[in-house]
Design brief:
Length: about 475
Amino acid sequence: MIDFKQGMEPEDGKVLENKPKKGKKFFNYLAIVIILIIIFAGKVIVSGAGSDSWFNTGIFGQIAHIATSSNKKLVGEENDRINILLLGMGGAGHDGAYLTDTIMLVSIKPSTKQISMISIPRDMTVPGDDGVWRKVNSVNARAEAKQVGSGGAETAKALSDLLGTPITYYVRADFQGFINIVDELGGVTVNVEHTLDDYSYPILGEEDNPNYYSRYEHLHVDTGLQKMDGSLALKFARSRHGINGEGSDFARAKRQQLILQAVKDKLLSTSTLLKPAMIVRITNQLREHIDTNISITDLIALWDQYKNINKAGLINKVLDDSADGLLVHQTGVDGAYLLMPKSGNYNEIKTFVQDIFGNNPAAVSVKPLTQPVNLQIVNGTWVTGLASKIGTTLDAYNFTSTKSNGNDRNITKSAIYDLSYGKHDDAIKALKDLTGATLNYDSPAWLTNLKNSTSTPDLVLILGTDAENWALTTPQQ
């Protein structure tokens, strides 16, 4: 684990004292600043000759060369998925200093250079090591109470077990560090999409004010381009009680992404990178307020291998309790607000997280069917036009598709049903290769009715939310 306060870095399983020369230390920290902010933003977007050539010259080129020449492998590359958990907490001076207010799972798919960001609500429940289910935001705090510095790793482990996907890396930051970095940058400009009015934003230090109404302030941010200092940027990202739809977890996660993108853009601007004194001050903030188990060489490898991620490949998702979400609100025995899986267990959520990238059709070679096959496509989501979009492409493979909306619009995992009794195995294989949907063998009531209809299709494809990420292409001529 990189401990910015101790100045230590792990190497070959050992913790060695890090005493680099002053100049090398400066550039190492500069690389960390750039890459951490990129990771925080959930996307790596540095393109064009200017920034790219600047990074690959001088000491930066040497560092990148060292990382690549050693063929550095990041944990997860062998499974085509690198997972990084981002955690934001209050820190010193805040009520519940170690409760994680922001939790995001960032995943990188090396084979396609895609990145996904899944925002996890702090009120979602997870099992503790004592068997008691608690809010996920408490895992970090409980671990820190037992052993200082263990919270990031424990939270990553808890979510790895719950979501069924190994989360190796974590980055944890506190609010004051975020505020200070934004202020060091001279503020950031954010394109606010919806006016934010939160009449119940808590005032730091006034939590126990006898005058209840003095504990809160009215937070108001207009739409359009807004210049924000660190304090306002943090409030904009944290607000939970906005009106007109801005109080939802989805809206909050969206604002967080806007803020992080603005910070990344400002930090990587030429005007910032050419101010060494400012960068030194920012690195000091990182040393004080950020904790991560990503080594410097891993950070450099992340930068070098994924700096040209395609923005079109970015996937932003939020686990929430909306109408088509996977969570549902419940009240705990102590009256606490909790979010539990809508299905009664975490299987759907595990599938959602594990299949966040869907299928990679570009890597699949599928030829059109020799004979047409009747296919009914049923939209099991609330995404308008999804069945038509998928059907248009599949028809090019000699499927003759009809489209309809399903009665259940909360399907997460797409499925194939064979109504031809094994007559079209080639078509089933093509569907599986193109979409990644699985062949199901159960027989729900609606399927039985469809079998007995006068126009029974050969195959049925039920679209789940994973179909949103399919990038289907027409067959090559």
